[in-house]
Request: fold
Amino acid sequence: MSSNAIVVVSWGEGRDGLPAGAVEVLTLGRKVAAAAGADLAWLVIGPASDKLAETAGQYGVASLERIEDAKLESFAPDTLVAAVSQYCESNNPKALLFNQIEETRQIAPRVAGRIGGGVVTNVIDIDASGDLKVTATAFGGDTNVVYELSGASTFAIAVNSTALVAEPAEAPTNPAAESVSVDLSSVEERFAVTQRPQAEGPRLEDADIIVSGGRGLGTPENYKLIQELAAALGGLPGASRPIVDEGWIDSSHQVGLTGKITRPALYLAAGISGASQHMAGCSAAKVLVAINKDEAASIFRYARYGIVGDCLEILPELIKAAKS
Amino acid sequence: MRIVVCAKEVLDPDAVNNYALAGRLEIGDDGKTITQSAIPQLINGFDEQGIEAALKLRDAGADFTLTVVSIGSDQKSLLKHSAAMGADEIVALRTEATDLDASAVANILTAYIQSSGGADLVLCGRQASDDDQGVVPALIAEALGMALVPIARDLELKSDTLSVTRVTADGDEVVEGAFPAVVTVSNELGDPRFPTAKGKMAARKKKPTVVNVDELGLAAEALAPKVKLTRQFVPEIQGNCEFLTGSPADVAQKLIENLRAESVIQ
Reply:
């Protein structure tokens, strides 16, 4: 790979077998590479699906690069940082683009720190016509900020892919697959996992239908209406941060900037005001339905359908209608 | 044992949100700074939870010195609050620079920690509620050569190791490793405690250690921003909400019919 490339960095398998958010970030990467007059590379680390080469071609990748190592069979942060940093030292890319998930939020800045690069997260757009300029969200989405990136040879950029739509390239490529050699023999994970997450069934991140509740439910007991409607619609229950902080429901249900970032077909928010912090986790929904007593509630600005009323009166009727 | 908590002063995110929701958030003539003087400055909530995490370790019987450090030109109220909560030492790293990026901030904090006897554990909030970037802890970890353990809801000191319960997309996981480490703390840790009257009294007598950033011996390039804020604006939201009206039974019926007609649900 030539230096100064735009490199999308991925690992892990999402629900379609490809790394989560990869095709969305590849779509942005292709635009950035074209504007910068650079090559688009896709660095995929660890085990991956056989669809990789086909997807790389569809999305206009010039070079598909693989790092495979027994130490990278599952998520291993110290090893990943070493692998990506070594890759950067030999290839000197202009930018590393990551799909922003909890894992990349620790890897991207560590790689930047290790190689003396710059780092920026929560990115929703990149302008590469001159020096790199990125648009990111701030204040939980209340504002957008533009950062100019200069003064380092490589920038690590974590992209919020829920804001992006995947678009295959007009001219597919036939990327050369290359195996990247790195030496990870001396890397040891400094913290060992002593208890794995208990698989709690399907994840909100992967759900097609989410029904979420907030303070407007009034009392913790009423959260069962959210669970019942979610079940009746074949979806999963979510929650706003205030009711998670108050212990009505555990944090695995929290949707928002510091919770789950979701992109369902349907997001139904009951008794949620629509603070930016929350919307950061659900504004990518195809259809958003809001139920709120306050007709001025911010959530209605994002909604496709709005119902002004008491969610405690409306939810039971919705459960009946959904079951009929 | 020494624990250092890094704390940032931010604009009150709830006040910013209220102004934004009311459509009255103002960006100044420089095109990048929020100018409402009515929005108070306060300690970043996640950083306050970093202090709380340390105090919980103390409650559990751990013996350590707790230092809270902050960068800026006036951190008096943040540091007093930290002392009132239970910090043993409060440190102001003084600079008039307003264009520090995350790398520069991490370099300053790293240089301070190294020049003041090091740390066994560095605690930071998972991100600051102003820029939401959340990258300084990882940069400090790399600069200090320490492990990074992000998004903690609970910490436990074992005989000579640290056990951390982390919040992940798949649920909680527990990791264990040796000191030193940088741990970031999330809201799942729980609300920070209110200072007691006794704590407030003690804080009144506590003077911050003031260190000028110039005295830390950092090279100019360590402070030069690579990520420069050039613009801040309030994004437009395209509203096209169709309001459904009628009795609860009517609106429920209409909504389900519409969603089925659009094949959003079955």
